[in-house]
Automatic annotation (TrEMBL):
Keyword Metal-binding belongs to the record: yes
Pfam families from the UniProt entry: Glyoxalase
Protein name: VOC domain-containing protein
InterPro entries: Fosfomycin_Res_Enzymes, Glyas_Bleomycin-R_OHBP_Dase, Glyas_Fos-R_dOase_dom, VOC_core
Claim: Repeat is one of the keywords in the record: no
Keyword terms: Metal-binding
Location of the VOC domain: 1-127
Domain of life: Bacteria
């Protein structure tokens, strides 16, 4: 089981605005908050976002480099995937693989792929029952 995931971000305020919405929709709540970071918790797992220091701010992130490719969040139904997609697109979220929605991950993998403010790929998925 994963205990927590910690990510450095370019702009903590922008990241917080994005994840306050997304993670509250996924039943996470704010767990910890300090000047340079915030974490959100669901059950025993939490996600931490920390403001990167100025020396590293311009390095940027790209999922095709070595390191994390994406984070996937599971929901209970395809209707929840559709609902979150609609709400996130209305907020200006960048959708990935729109032409293949909802089966960009394969013919039985119902998912919505999109990017956070730092272009980290995220996925909302409903596994078939």
């Amino acid at each position: 089981m994963i205990h927590h995931i910690e990510l450095y971000v370019r702009d903590l305020a922008e990241t917080q605005q994005f994840y306050d919405f997304l993670l509250s929709e996924l039943n996470y709540s704010i767990y910890q908050q300090w000047d340079n970071g915030i974490s959100y918790k669901f059950e025993d797992t939490y996600i931490v976002f920390v403001q990167v220091t100025a020396a590293y701010k311009n390095n940027g992130y790209h999922r095709k480099n070595i390191g994390l490719n994406h984070l996937a969040f599971q929901v209970n139904s395809t209707s929840q995937v559709n609902h979150l997609r609609k709400k996130l697109l209305a907020r200006g979220t960048q959708e990935l693989y729109a032409e293949l929605y909802p089966f960009a991950g394969g013919p039985t993998h119902y998912a919505f792929y999109f990017e956070d403010p730092d272009r980290l790929k995220l996925e909302i998925v409903a596994e078939p029952k």
